[in-house]
Please model this.
Amino acid sequence: MLFSTWQFILIFIPITWGLYFWLNHKRLILAGKVVLVLASLFFYAYWDVRYLPLILISILFNFGIGAALTRQYTKDSLLHEDSKRKYYRMLLLGLGIGANLLLLGYYKYSHFFISNLNTHFATSYTLPLIVLPLAISFFTFTQIVYLVDSYRGQTGKYDLLNYSLFVTFFPHLIAGPIVQHQQIMPQFYSRWTLSWRASNVLRGLLIFSIGFFKKVVIADTFAIYSDAGFDGNGPIDFFTAWATSLSYTFQLYFDFSGYCDMAIGAALLFNIWLPINFNSPYRALSIQDFWRRWHITLSHFLRDYLYIPMGGNRYSKHRTYVTLFITFVLGGLWHGASWMFVLWGALHGIGLVVHRIWQQLHLPLPKPFAWLLTFAFVNVTWVFFRAKTGEDALRILNGMVDIQSIYQPLVGAKSILSISWSGWLGDVLLHLFPTSLVSQLPIYLAITSGFILIFQKNALAIIQERITTGKVLICALLFSVALLVSLTQTSSVFLYFNF
Model:
């Protein structure tokens, strides 16, 4: 089920919200939590019921391992941990993490592994078709974090119901954020969250409306242009190539930003604050700043559970650079079983290493130039992220540097969207600008609007300020437009659903 469908907005949310708080009002707290868990499982199974047993088994397995780690940590702390007890806990943790990674590896990477094995060793191994279960990357990483925290004695004694609610709570289940138990579980234990609160409902509806509009109206519109450019064939000219890359850059931005806003809004209806996962990353002044703003919970996971355990910055500079590079290569691979994702991660790893070296030179860049350099790097690397093959990526990149095609149209090249201008306006435009640009002015007007929007206050900042009548009316208008669009055309899935 998608956040942006009428089934979710008009049926699922009202029924779940009403039943949950009605049960709480009747002091049937346990029943209320059961309703939230069952509703979240229904939300998950609505997409493909075949994988419902998978997430249930994963929850039971990880809860059992986590409970054993917590009990063992308590005993060790009371009896003074010896080497055998520590070894037992490490073995138990390794079993839990290994099982999670094996599950993720089978569903997400087995075909990738087999195809590369066949290519490099001339073998002919085959596997049956394996469909990637929805959200497996997110609920796997969420539970790995829980196991590590249990090993460290930081999780406390939680029951199966609350643990299940922590893992399956539908606003974060499908595409994050990757939550930690201390961010969510104490909120479900708090009496403050049991009664509905008008201020949270209002703020939740406002930020949900903003995210809804971002996804359905803005991101899905940019998707038309980016898909036409990336999925096309033949040569591509300068303006078409830039329109293609920038369209995807803004599609991904507003798609993921819209999802994060809608997730926060849906959770806030239930008095739950999800961790911030997206904070205006296209305003970043460095690639390091970008990763502090983009998919923040994934960045924290990579830092805390890969970069730091591998040594972090505790050793020599060269080893730190290698560790940083490896971390982002693995981060790229997390996004999907493709060498294009690996290459994208490697490029960001190199970018972060170069940034570290530049910082040590103590040569700060002017802010406008720093922003332009960061945005250009991110935009170019998104080409590899979106392209299905290296040839597809090179096709776009070659067009982006083909300055000759500005005034000398390529033979066989097609624009994403060509518009013929007639009359005096067409004569003026064709006199001032190249023909290939004039024919695609609507795309560039949309891209210009995208640049303007990314420098406005983000949705989270808007709802944290005083809520005025004007804000309510504007958000109501955005919601109405988005709902009308979603009812008249099928919305695409959120891009991060694929990861």
